[in-house]
Design a protein that fits this description.
Blueprint: E1 2-3, E2 6-8, E3 11-13, H1 15-25, E4 29-37, H2 44-54, E5 61-68
Antiparallel strand pairs: 1-5, 2-3, 4-5
Length: 69
């Protein structure tokens, strides 16, 4: 499962770890956790400017969860 996180109202929302918890609660075991750097995002320029303007860091990674049933 490839998941990223997001921000809402200036705060980090760890959607990826919430999804991981749902899988674990359903009987899956986490076999691997791979952190993938994001490249070539179309909106990077827009967010880069706004990150400076509104004082927040860019989210530059996603998580690849490998589960075993």
């Amino acid at each position: 499962v490839l998941m990223g996180d997001t921000r809402q109202k200036g705060h980090m929302v760890p959607m990826s770890f919430n999804v991981m918890r749902v899988f674990e609660d359903s009987g899956f075991k986490l076999k691997e956790l791979i952190i993938k750097e994001q490249h070539n995002c179309k909106a990077t320029g827009y967010w880069k400017n706004n990150s400076v303007k509104y004082n927040f860091l860019l989210i530059a990674h996603e998580y690849l969860f490998v589960f075993k049933k």
